[in-house]
Each structure stands twice: as structure tokens, then as C-alpha cells.
Amino acid sequence: MKQSKMLIPTQKQDPTGAEAISHKMLIRAGFIQQISAGTYAYLPLAYRVIQKIKRIIEDEMDNSNANEMLVPEIIPAKFWQDSGRYEAYGPELFKLKNRHDTDFILGPTHEETMTELIKGTINSYKKLPLNVYQIQSKFRDEDRPRYGLLRSREFMMLDAYSFSANDDDLDKIYREMNTAFRNIFDRVGLQYLGIIGDSGSMGGSDSMEFSAPAAVGEDTIVYSDDSDYAANLEMATNLFVNKKSHAELGELELVETPDVKNINQVAKFFDVEKNKIIKSLLYMVDEKPVLLLVLGNQEINPAKVKNYFHADDAELATAAQVKDILGSVPGAVGPFGLSDDVTVLADEYVQGIVNGIIGANQDGKHYQNINPSRDLPNLKYGDFRLVNEGDISPDGSGVLKFTKGIEIGHIFKLGTRYTDVLDANILDENGRQTPIIMGSYGIGVSRLLSAISEQMADDNGLVWPKAIAPFDVHVLPMNVKKDEQRELADKIYNDLKANGLDVLLDDRKERAGVKFADSDLIGIPIRITIGKKADEGIVEVKIRKTGETIETKVDDLQNTIEILSKEI
Fold first, then answer.
1. pLDDT (0 to 100) of residue 109
2. pTM of this prediction?
3. H helices within 188-218, ranges in order?
4. 423 by DSSP, 3-state: which?
5. Residue 548 exposure: Cα atoms within 13 Å on the Cβ side
6. Is residue 447 part of a domain?
7. Total structural domains in the chain?
């Protein structure tokens, strides 16, 4: 392809408002262009990268016996209303009506659509297992789209769905998808971690998230410094050690605590460390009140609360809700004098408290010398906290560390979450109706452009791995007005193309400095510069990733490229 014939609107300056390096460089290098807040056009260079990513995905999915197909982006709202996600998904759902006033949504994902499709076509266990996938635009009305393609309102995604008659087949496909996804990420040249993930609004049981470590990542990855353990912050656990205290139990005492409203004030008033305080927080879990007890130096993890109850939502109650349900105010809440409508749970670390401090559920009053084993004997315990850096890894090997990451893929065992509510059944071996068992598997295809850019870009521009680079080689004649340079560039261009390489020829009448700057921005793995030694048949070859340059004879150019390509 000749550069003068391509739409590559490079820019010298960073775009206004861009924070992430991938956002800056993809725009500056002429790969994407913003159309509106959170929506982008994929210009020719970006689309070439996407096409190569898609071919890798299709190859690995085909190897896993998955069937590629395509369903509409516009989904009848009834599908999501029947599944319960229409309201649960919240304002991120794009909603619309047709001329007949029928409700539709723009698909953020397609569990319901695929379930309805299979429901109408598969009626026997003999036709399962089945795995289908598509690569398609998805839509989520992000409140604050940012970081370019990392958090946008329209994005490209691989979404795959498996349908099985039994758990063994689900497990097999889940393992195959795990392998396929890792092969895909390896082939596109991405550094990534497979971590324990949260199913969130998707529902289901087992879940693994694939995350690309990057400073701009909005997810926190928790990992052990001495083992393979890794999880996102929402799902991370640590090794619980119940330390026994042999201190004599003090007598429970109600203490007046005027103007003491938060943990810092409680710690100062009683002159104790925060880990000697039990704080009580009221959550509304699917609109039902749950009082959660946790140590004063720890924080509640709402995802763990939701998972404990298999709930769609868990939010901290408002002051008005606290007053109405508990008859108290935030800062004084405690597990005393509650109605039977309030479920009380405690984080497992609470059971080790001896002679601690806790709210009395009376404004301006706290209890001193609370001992849960004695004073709250019926308390139920579980892991409801966020882990902290330095905690012991749950496998007992090493301590937990935090890093930032970009979610690039996710695999879920959905079970019968959707087939139950949508009545997607089959006849089993005994002729009985039974719900189909599902899995869901997704990769953010457009996100991969940003994730790879974040990991590999430098101060001069993008650096593409050869497997997905828009072109294999960039040919730059320094002065196209000089016949020997232009003719040699054309020869090299045609010869390399004839040998099966994707080649971009910069045939523009631009200064050398402009061509070099644009070439670095675009980030093609190998650059061939035709300059003053063109009449001697000598060119310069540069590896974009390392900056290494060598001179070579044109007759040796193909061999040189083949050798250098192995190092990229």
C-alpha cells in the first residue's frame, strides 16, 4: 500500500484531554478518530490491526470447535426483562423504541439472545454440547467514557456461549476456552495474567478474568509475590489466621460518646487502635437490610456480599435508611435491638476481638469490652472484607501485592442462570425436561489495541508486535524526487510484496524528518530507509522495538528481514 493513498492523519501534539498513552498515541498515529464522547472511528491502520486480531481469534476458536455466527445488535427488551437484567444493568443500557412503541436495547452482551436462539433450535441432549461465538460491536452508555478505547460507549468484542447437557461438558469447554484465550493473548504479543474474577451482573459460578498489567488500568490485580495466586480486588482473599487472646474478658459497659461519629474519633476517644474497634455498616442487598460487622481498620467488599447472597446489588444504606430501619445514625450503629428483618453477618476477623469497642445502636453511645464469642454468640461469620497489601496469600505462599491492570477477557460458568428464567430446556437421557447449562466467554477486541499500546508504546509512538502490526515493513525513500531512490524503493516494495509481506511505501513528498517521525508514530516492526547509498544498492534497516539499525545490500534484504523478524 502506498502511504499517499491511505487515510493516516498523524498529529504532532497530544490530543486535548487524553490521559492514557494508548489514547494519545492511537490518535496521534492516525489509527482512531473520535466521533463523539466514547465513540471512535477505526481508521485504516487500526482496522488492519483489528482484522489480524480477528483472524487469530477465529483460528483459535475454530481449533476449539466453536461456531462463528452473528446475531442482531438490536435486542428485544423483553429478553432482558424476562432474565431480570433490564433493570439490574442500570443506566449503562442503551434503550430505544421502534415506530410501534416496542422496547429494544443495543446489545452490551448477548446471553439472552443466544439462549432464546438455542431454545428455539435445540430440544435434545443429543445435539449438545455446542459452542458458538461472534465478533461484533457492543454498546454501554458509560457515564464517563475515558482513556479512548479502554472505556468507550461502543466497542468491538468477541462473545462466545456454550450450551451443555451436563457439568462435565461445561467444564471441558471452559478449559478449552481458557486455553484458547491464552493462545490468543500469547499470539498477539500481550503480557497478561489469568486471575480469579467476579461474575458481576453476568451471574454464574466459576469465573476467570484475563488482565493486562498497565499503569492506566482501572482494575486492581492482587497477586502473591511467591506463588501463582492472582485475583481481582473484588474477589481476592487472604489466609485467615484466628489469633487467640488469653486476656481476661472485661465486663460489657455502655459508654457515653458525644460527638463521636467515625472510626478515627472512636479510636481517639477510647485511645485504642482501629483493629480493636468493630464497625457496623448497614447494606441494602437487593433492597433487603443486612448489617455487616468488620474491624475498624478493614473495609467491606460489596462484591463478596453480593456473592454470599447471590444478589444483583449491594449498596451502603443512606442515613435515612439507617434511621428508618435501625432507629440509629451512621457512626453509632451496632447489632443491638434489631428487628428480625435485619440479617446480621460479621467478617471472620471479628471473632478474634477481645474487649473491643462497638456501636450501641444508640446515638452518642458505644459499648466497651465487646467480646463477640460471649456477647454475640449467634453471629454468623464469613469473608466480607477487602484484602490489603502485605496480607498473607491464601495459599500460604508469599504476601499479597497490588498492581493495576486492564481487563481484556473473561470466562464464566453461567450454569442455568439464564436457561432457568428463559425456559430453555432439553430432554435428557431419561426423557425428562432439564435446563441447558451455559458458559459465557468474552474478549475485548478493540480493548486489545489499547492494552497492547499501553504496554509497548514509547515516547516516539506505537510499537506493534509483528503478528498484528498493520504492515510488516515500512519502506521510506528519503527523497522521492531522486530517481535512484524512488526506483529502488519501488523495487523493494514490489519484491517484498511478492514474497508475501505486507508493505507500506511512504511515497509522499515530505521531508525526511516528517517521514521518520510518522514512521515511529505508526510503529511498524521493520523500517527500510533508502537514502544516499541507493545508487550503491545499500539501505538501512531499523527494528522499531529496539531502535537497532543495520546497513545491508538490497540483494541480502529478504534474508536480513527474515533474520530480524525472529528477534521481534
1. 96
2. 0.86
3. none
4. coil
5. 10
6. yes
7. 3
